[in-house]
Model the fold of this input.
Amino acid sequence: MKYNNQKVLITGGSSGIGLALAKKFMENDNTVIITGRNLSKLETVQKEFPSIHIFQSDVTDDAEVRMLADDIQEKFDGVDILINNAGIMNLVDAGNEDNDLQKLMQEIEINYNSPIRVLHYFLPQLKKSKNAVLINTSSGLAYVPFAQAPVYSGTKSALHFWTKGIRPQLKSHQIKVVELLPPVVDTPIFDNVGSAEESKFKPMPPQKLANLFWKDFIKGKEEITPGLSSQLKLMSRLAPKYIFKQLNKQPIPTTNG
Ligand SMILES: NC(=O)c1ccc[n+]([C@@H]2O[C@H](COP(=O)([O-])OP(=O)(O)OC[C@H]3O[C@@H](n4cnc5c(N)ncnc54)[C@H](OP(=O)(O)O)[C@@H]3O)[C@@H](O)[C@H]2O)c1
Done:
């Protein structure tokens, strides 16, 4: 495996974990391309890091993802490392019939369906690379659901199982599959959330997360569980009911999705 001079695409790279990973890959002399829906956020990042490449592209839009793959093929002759990172989180009270159903479906579309879509269109490029890696950002909540965000937890657990399922399949095409399962990280994902539950956990700074990721990534680890996520993994096996209760003392959110 090579960890520098690679072409790296990060979906949702304009803030938080994606941006921290982008910085880490740039520090290690890689060509980094980031995407997001909001162009001004991408341009702000590019002002600070002129060497970064930006593409406005919505992971849920099939035509846009196809066009992104075509553009990257043309301009960069393909990618080596694809990071499915774009994601959102809604707090939802499943007992409320006034929930916005479209918003709930959109969360599944972004967090679970889109990594499958993005891989689909970038598969030919990964197959051509001599150093192909797919990295999926799921969550420590893939091990233990956070009741206040039930759709989110479901998408991350689905992403976790999809990742495990495709790993041996893509191995035969020389594509390494890595999963990053972050703990609570201090990012804008919580901007519209405001939950009492999550404030119990001290969020990890995004750059610390990126440093811990990098250490394990260059060791060749396939399932990367920084901080509290490694405890969630262990406890989900040893004492699943106990850890579920600990995480979910207040199962119903004060704000709705
Ligand atoms: N923060 C945490 O505690 C935590 C913990 C575990 C896992 N994660 C996961 O880490 C990943 C990154 O989250 P974050 O915490 O860094 O949040 P964030 O700062 O809000 O970043 C999310 C990124 O995804 C982009 N995005 C959202 N929807 C998109 C779409 N439809 N198409 C393209 N880009 C889209 C956002 O840009 P635009 O809004 O401009 O599109 C932004 O760049 C997510 O998958 C999240 O579930 C986060």
Observations:
- The pocket of NAP is lined by residues 11-18, 35-38, 41, 58-60, 85-89, 110, 137, 139, 182, 184-185, 187-189 (CB under 6 Å).
